[in-house]
Every structure is written in structure tokens, then in C-alpha cells.
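Figure 6 in text form: structure in, sequence out.
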């Protein structure tokens, strides 16, 4: 995600160079060693996946909503991140979130619900059955990944707190703590990071509260200890390190919408027909493929139209971008 106050029209050249070097190095490593194993297995097994198969959540049921796509390597999922609370470069979060302590953690439920409260994380997630869900993940910057998340449907949690008839939207808020999240010292975004969904989007069975990936707890850089994953929307809607969930009558303002309303709408559904002013959304580059590989066509709703298109029936998606 590029900051709107930047004067450049595109991703920073330094970021592009970094990525090429990064991918070139990965390709090299693949060719000299691991590549042959990947070839034999059709490329579906990675070293990291093999390692995490014995992880804390290795025996979870796999969700029927899982994509059959080839997984992005764990090293890319946990090494190429957007998490501005830990810096604005893609490589900052893995480094700068290393010592982030997310234990103990509490989540507050507020607003239009019959049963508000503040819960410690263990109590908060205890009632829900965890599962593995392999989702396509598309960033508005034009890259994508395929990630095996560990989590539970947000709908299960919402039902527990009994929203009132006034609850039309759900707002999510990230931790604000400049000592633990050093990137928050810089005013690159209005902190804390916030996001929002319409209540029917939040209740859709695809919307996931994630507490892990690749069979283990969430790495800090991916939003430990609990984050949202909304696979048919651009990645920035999938807010990390959540401390508050508020049910509201009116549409909440999200961080990116606040700082760039012409660039980042409330809905932010993946849509190849609606370009971002600075990035075409027609195609995408899969992280892990060599930078010279042909790009892939982006699919409406990121390929999840069957499950979510009805939510937007009759809406002009160019206006409601
Ligand atoms: N959540 C918070 N709190 N802060 C952030 O900077 N970045 C968003 C989203 N959630 C962000 C966030 C963006 S732009 C993207 S693309 C995804 O997280 C990246 O998730 P990943 O690093 O797990 O791939």
C-alpha cells in the first residue's frame, strides 16, 4: 500500500528493486536446491509448509471454502507484508515486529449489541471451532498470495453478542500503542488503523477471524494475535491486531478511506473493471513467481462471486468502489 501523501505516481522505485532482488534470490535458491523437490511434487509442497505441518493447529478440518490454488511460500507470506504500525516498507514488519508482545491481549465488543464486554483473547475465541481456510488474497497494489489461514467465521462471533436492530455496520480497530508499535510514532496514517464492513458482509460465511496461518499462531507481522480476513476485498480491509469491534448504525470511516476517499472506497471489492487511480486492477502478479512471468487476470470479487455477488445486487460498483 502506498501512502497518498507521496508525490510519486506509483510504487517507489526502491521497492521495485528490492522485490526483484528478493525474488531473484528466491528463484536462485529454488533452482540450486529445493526446486527439484518442488518439481517432483508439482510445486505444491514447500519447505515451510512441510515444517508447519507439525504445528499447533496441524489437525484442523479444512474448510469447504478453501481454494485449490498453489500456496504462497511461508517465507513470502511472513516476509513481504503491509503493516504500517511497523514501518512502511514491505520488509519492515518481519524485522520490526519481532519483539511485539501480544500476550496478554483483550478484545472489546461495543456499540449496538445486547452483550457488550471486554474479553481476554482466550475466552474470546474459546467458543468457536477453528478450521483451516486456504484463501486467495489480493492487494490493491496488484500482487496476490494464497494463504492457509487458521480461524473461525466472524458470523459465529457476531451471533454470540446479539446485535440490535440498529447494528448496520461493524467497525474494527487495531491496537494503538506507540511503545509496542513503533511505526505509530510517525504520522503516516491516522492511528489507530480502523476498518469497517456492512453487517451482511460481516455475516457472510467467507468472512474470517484469523488467529493463525500455516498451522501455527499468526506471526506478529501478519497481525498477531487476531485479525480479519475478507478474501473478496482488497487486502487493506483485512485489519490486523484487533482490539475493538464496534457495532454501529452509521457507516464507519476506514483509515484508507479517511486519507484518500477518491482512491479507497468503503467497499473495496476486488474488481478488474474498476481501476484504482494509480494501479490497474485488471491483472495481478502472484508473489513467488519470477518477476518476468506473465501476470494473471484478476477475477471479479477475487474469484468469490458465487458466495458474495448477491450482497451487491443492484448496486453501481463503479460508484460504490
Ligand atoms: N492492518 C493494520 N492494522 N495496519 C496495516 O498497515 N495493512 C493492510 C492489511 N491490514 C495493514 C493492516 C494491507 S494494505 C494489506 S495488503 C494487508 O494487511 C497485508 O496483510 P499481510 O501482511 O498479512 O499479507
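Output sequence:
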Amino acid at each position: 500500500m502506498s501512502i497518498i501523501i507521496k508525490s510519486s505516481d506509483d510504487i517507489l522505485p526502491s521497492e521495485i528493486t528490492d522485490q526483484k532482488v528478493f525474488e531473484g534470490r528466491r528463484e536462485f535458491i529454488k533452482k540450486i536446491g529445493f526446486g527439484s523437490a518442488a518439481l517432483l511434487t508439482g510445486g505444491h509442497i514447500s519447505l515451510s509448509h512441510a515444517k508447519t505441518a507439525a504445528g499447533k493447529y496441524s489437525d484442523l478440518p479444512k474448510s469447504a471454502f478453501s481454494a485449490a490454488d498453489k500456496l504462497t511460500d511461508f517465507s513470502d507470506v511472513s516476509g513481504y507484508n503491509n503493516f504500517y504500525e511497523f514501518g512502511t516498507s514491505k520488509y519492515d514488519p518481519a524485522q520490526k515486529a519481532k519483539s511485539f508482545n501480544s500476550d496478554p491481549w483483550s478484545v472489546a465488543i461495543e456499540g449496538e449489541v445486547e452483550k457488550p464486554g471486554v474479553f481476554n483473547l482466550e475466552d474470546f475465541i474459546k467458543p468457536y471451532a477453528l478450521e483451516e481456510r486456504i484463501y486467495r488474497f489480493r492487494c490493491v497494489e496488484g500482487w496476490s498470495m494464497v494463504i492457509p489461514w487458521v480461524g473461525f467465521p466472524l458470523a459465529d462471533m457476531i451471533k454470540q453478542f446479539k446485535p440490535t436492530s440498529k447494528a448496520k455496520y461493524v467497525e474494527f480497530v487495531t491496537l494503538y500503542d506507540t511503545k509496542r508499535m513503533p511505526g505509530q510514532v510517525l504520522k503516516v496514517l491516522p492511528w489507530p488503523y480502523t476498518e469497517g464492513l456492512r453487517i451482511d458482509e460481516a455475516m457472510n460465511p467467507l468472512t474470517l477471524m484469523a488467529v493463525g496461518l500455516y498451522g501455527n499462531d499468526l506471526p506478529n507481522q501478519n497481525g498477531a494475535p487476531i485479525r480479519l480476513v475478507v478474501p473478496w476485498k482488497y487486502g487493506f480491509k483485512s485489519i490486523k491486531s484487533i482490539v475493538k469491534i464496534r457495532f454501529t448504525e452509521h457507516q464507519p470511516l476506514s483509515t484508507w478511506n479517511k486519507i484518500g476517499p477518491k482512491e479507497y472506497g468503503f467497499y473495496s471489492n476486488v474488481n478488474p473493471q474498476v481501476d484504482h487511480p494509480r494501479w490497474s486492477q485488471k491483472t495481478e502478479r502472484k508473489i513467488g513467481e519470477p518477476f518476468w512471468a506473465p501476470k494473471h487476470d484478476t477475477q471479479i470479487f477475487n474469484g468469490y462471486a458465487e458466495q458474495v455477488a448477491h450482497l451487491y445486487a443492484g448496486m453501481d460498483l463503479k460508484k460504490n468502489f
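Caption detail: Residues 8-77+99-181+188-312 form a domain with the Sulfite Oxidase; Chain A, domain 2 fold (CATH 3.90.420.10).
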